[in-house]
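Q: Sequence in, structure out?
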Amino acid sequence: MADDDTDDTYLDRPNRRKASSKATKAIVAFLLVVSAVIVLIISLGGWNTLEGAKPLQIAYILLYLVMAFLVMRWNRGVLPLAAALAVSGPAWFDRDKTGLTEPPLSSDLLGLLSLILVPVQILLIAFSMRGFQQAWNVEVERTRDERDDYDRGGGQPAPAAA
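A: Exactly. Output:
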């Protein structure tokens, strides 16, 4: 670049302007929040019957919410983590046997929520990997003139000089 004046350049993130990237970001954040809510309901509904998993359940809920926040800020690094943590809930259907304590919410309802969590997590895996492939992290240094051309309706900014 001939002019090293940083006031004349800016970092452009072209992949973040794409409608598909924006939609993927919103879907991943939504699925993370939905997962957190379902895990929260399952946790609260079966709180008395959870043995040593209470801190882990709380950690998962908080982690899902933090990841949703980071995804909304275009943090691509949490996408593989979101896909890796997508797991199904516990098997609550087995709690209808004699001698087992019934949780505050029906075991059948908690089992159903656990089953609903499975496809939500599968979708989370798929959309997280899709978002990772969209390269949200790509940055291109552009001049202010290129930005002005884009703002005047020129569509995409000119390709970055090599």
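DSSP finds five helices and two strands in the chain.
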